């Protein structure tokens, strides 16, 4: 076997995925350089009250919807410690940010990161897809928002870790009439921070998943009426939620009158709304990658194509990769295992299938999605990744973590108002902290 390669690798983003990538790349013997446009590490967990940089989607009161024990990296526990500012099992976003920053300090990653540095473009250094480096054009943004001149560097490989909670996806195009409403009459939850601006208003929330449910309940404390439209609700749905007199669960919005005031639901009922808020998720965005005829990936129906196992571009593997794309998963452990796979593939320690084989796998996945309607479970995926990395214990998601994740999901369905503060998985909590004792703080 030839000696392992040591490559200079550009990592785009210093959130949890980018930090995991930097750590695994360095452990494998590579030289990572992390580009982060914000003033600090943290990615989506870096709260921005004024939404000045349009990168944070956090609202002020946000708490995690997973227990901290589940969320943490595999070998760096997110445990409650005596000096925790928020020791709750479902803490506020500030506690997650502190944890991510502690991860960066613990593994001495700060020296690898260029803060306030925005990647503008990534392109091949030559016309041959199978050889050569990657040209990264970037600009450092000063604290006063005065931008320095653009600069370029060449890297052996690029790992994209820019997250997927910054580019809002709205329902306006799917609801006749709503696209005519002005920005002041509709917004995305990406820009929501506190409930005060909605005092005494009638608010229609489109979407009933995590953010829609939480924001609806919070706004109901100050608004005159809140109507949460759920795409999966039966047409006749129209009732107040338990414990509320002014919060209704409704069927999906059928149309919006172009007068900018009236919203009509599928059951034919209507309300005069002061504002419509889209809690409809986000779309993937890679503005620094080639587009058009020279595009290396495309985003269609919220799917990044073509990617082998959500990570490698078959034509460019392993020199252009993505870490952190799957959603509705336990993110940090998955980031860590994906990053380990990428680092090993770049060094040559891990052999990838041929381009033809990876493209066949991509096609098979899409066929399965069209036929069955869902991909393999996240834990099957994590297990498969761990096998690619060598199958060591350090790369495996523990059984207690899987069970705790499932228990939290069930509790959320049963007790949506109180699941963060009432739980019945003490036996799993005990197993978690037994495992945590194996790692130094």
From TrEMBL:
Listed name of the protein: Flavin-containing monooxygenase
Highest classification ranks of the organism: Eukaryota, Viridiplantae, Streptophyta, Embryophyta, Tracheophyta
Short name of one Pfam family: FMO-like
Family annotation (InterPro entries): FAD/NAD-bd_sf, Flavin_mOase, Flavin_mOase-like, FMO-like
SUPFAM superfamilies: FAD/NAD(P)-binding domain
EC number assigned by the record: 1.-.-.-
Cofactor annotation: FAD
Family: Belongs to the FMO family.
Sorted UniProt keywords: FAD, Flavoprotein, Monooxygenase, NADP, Oxidoreductase
An MF annotation (GO) of this entry: NADP binding
First-level EC class: oxidoreductase
């Amino acid at each position: 076997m030839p000696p392992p390669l040591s490559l200079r690798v550009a990592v785009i983003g210093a959130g949890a995925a980018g930090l995991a990538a930097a750590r695994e790349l360095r452990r494998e013997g590579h030289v990572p350089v992390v580009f982060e446009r914000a003033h600090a590490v943290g990615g989506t967990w870096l709260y921005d009250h004024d939404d000045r940089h349009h990168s944070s989607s956090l609202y002020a009161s946000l708490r995690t919807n997973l227990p901290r024990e589940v969320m943490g990296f595999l070998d760096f526990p997110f445990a409650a410690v005596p000096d925790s500012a928020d020791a709750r099992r479902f803490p506020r976003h500030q506690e997650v940010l502190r944890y991510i920053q502690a991860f960066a300090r613990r593994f001495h990653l700060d020296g690898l990161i260029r803060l306030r540095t925005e990647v503008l473009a990534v392109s091949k250094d030559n016309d041959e897809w199978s050889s050569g480096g990657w040209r990264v054009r970037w600009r450092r943004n000063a604290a006063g928002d005065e931008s320095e001149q653009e600069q370029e560097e060449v890297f052996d490989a690029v790992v994209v870790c820019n997250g997927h909670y910054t580019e809002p996806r709205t329902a306006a195009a799917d609801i006749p009439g709503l696209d005519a409403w002005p920005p002041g009459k509709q917004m995305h939850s990406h820009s929501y921070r506190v409930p005060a601006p909605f005092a005494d208003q009638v608010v229609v929330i489109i979407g009933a998943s995590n953010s829609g449910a939480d924001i609806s309940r919070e706004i109901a404390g100050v608004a005159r009426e809140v109507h949460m439209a759920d795409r999966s609700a039966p047409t006749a749905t129209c009732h107040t939620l338990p414990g509320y007199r002014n919060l209704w669960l409704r069927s999906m919005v059928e149309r919006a009158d172009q007068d900018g005031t009236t919203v009509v639901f599928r059951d034919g009922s209507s309300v005069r709304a002061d504002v419509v808020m889209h809690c409809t998720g986000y779309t993937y965005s890679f503005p620094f990658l080639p587009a058009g005829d020279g595009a290396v990936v495309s985003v269609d129906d919220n799917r990044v194509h073509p990617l082998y196992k959500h990570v490698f571009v078959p034509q460019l593997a392993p020199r252009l990769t993505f870490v952190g794309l799957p959603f509705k998963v336990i993110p940090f452990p998955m980031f860590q295992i994906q990053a380990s796979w990428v680092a090993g593939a770049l060094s040559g320690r891990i052999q990838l299938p041929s381009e033809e084989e990876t493209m066949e796998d991509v096609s098979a996945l899409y066929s399965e999605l069209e036929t069955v309607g869902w991909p393999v479970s996240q834990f099957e995926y994590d297990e498969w990744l761990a096998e690619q990395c060598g199958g060591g214990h350090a790369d495996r998601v523990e059984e207690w973590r899987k069970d705790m994740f499932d228990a939290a999901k069930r509790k959320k369905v049963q007790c949506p108002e109180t699941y963060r503060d009432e739980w019945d998985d003490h036996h799993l909590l005990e197993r978690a902290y037994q495992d945590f004792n194996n790692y130094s703080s």
